[in-house]
Write a structure and sequence with these properties.
CATH topology: Spore Coat Polysaccharide Biosynthesis Protein SpsA, Chain A
CATH class: Alpha Beta
Bound molecules: 1-O-phosphono-alpha-D-glucopyranose
Largest sheet: 9 strands, mixed
Distance between the termini: 35 Å
Radius of gyration: 18 Å
Shape: globular
Helix content: 25-40%
CATH architecture: Alpha-Beta Complex
Structural class: alpha/beta
């Protein structure tokens, strides 16, 4: 029912310089797998097989990653290393990958609007690959899709954060309809603790209705002079078209050194057990 998933991946990754000077932040590995591969796995697990990636300059490595490397595969074919490529081969075999480039960095809303050409007139998922999510018991996008199937609306994933951290996130104002499901009345991008309507922060997972594109076109630049998806969703929330889901599981902000190391430790502990 939701076939496409958009990955905004044009950002500079300034929080991880100098590592991201010449390498896309989405290609930073947690153990031996780049962040964006975790995101595509989550998308495929939710049945979203058409992967739409908004890239920018110096992001070529992403396209090469989701492509067949004939020399490499020939070289390791029949050796013990062959199974190292099984995971990425599975994605390549089961997904399609389309790309478009964001020429100017004008915010997440602008990146999503740039992806319209790949999405068209249908609902779609959005994954910000540097938010690495470990859903429990099922992947976060699958949890969101379950809610979408019951109540088709824009769905955003949220988690509680300390008030001292709300300035890093979009924050919702909502009322709980049932456990973990909120009707969103409004939202604000990166508020101060005083301005924030609460401590329910948006994390990098969305299911969006295609009308978000028109709403984005009508939205003025917001925080930081950028076109914010939060502002467009605020408008749709006023029309009662937005729900928020407090997902179950963990989320690591891998755009920060702290979150990146925490995620690495988590996956390394699993790896040692295996
Ligand atoms: C973006 C969104 C913000 C959201 C966050 C989640 O901000 O604008 O609303 O809370 O992603 O990671 P960014 O982290 O790109 O500045």
């Amino acid at each position: 029912m939701v076939r496409k998933c958009l990955f905004p991946a044009a950002g500079y990754g300034t929080r991880f310089l100098p590592a991201t000077k010449a390498m896309p932040k989405e290609m930073m590995p947690i153990l031996d797998k780049p962040l964006i591969q975790y995101g595509v796995e989550e998308s495929l697990a939710a049945g979203m097989q058409q992967i739409a990636i908004v890239t920018g300059r110096s992001k070529r490595a992403i396209e090469d990653h989701f492509d067949i490397s004939y020399e490499l595969e020939h070289q390791i074919s029949g050796t013990s290393k062959e199974n190292k490529l099984a995971g990425i081969r599975h994605l390549i075999d089961h997904c399609t990958f389309s790309y478009t480039r964001q020429m100017e960095m004008k915010g997440l809303g602008h990146a999503i609007l740039t992806g319209e050409t790949l999405i068209g007139d249908e609902p779609f998922g959005v994954i910000l690959a540097d938010d690495l999510c470990v859903g429990n018991p099922e992947p976060v996008m699958s949890q969101m899709l379950r809610l979408y199937k019951k109540q088709p609306a824009c769905i955003i994933a949220i988690e509680e954060v300390p008030l001292s951290e709300v300035h890093k996130y979009g924050v919702i104002d909502g009322e709980e309809l049932e456990e973990g499901v909120y009707k969103v009345n409004g939202m604000i991008e990166k508020p101060s603790a005083e301005e924030a309507p609460g401590n329910l922060a948006i994390i990098g997972r969305y299911i969006l209705l295609p009308e978000v594109f028109n709403t984005l076109r009508e939205t003025r630049p917001g925080k930081g002079g950028e076109l914010q998806i939060t502002d467009a969703l605020h408008t749709l929330a006023k029309q009662e078209k937005v729900l928020a889901l407090k997902f179950s599981g963990m989320r690591y902000d891998c755009g920060s050194v702290h979150g990146f190391v925490d995620a690495t430790n988590y996956f390394f502990a699993l790896y040692r057990q295996s």
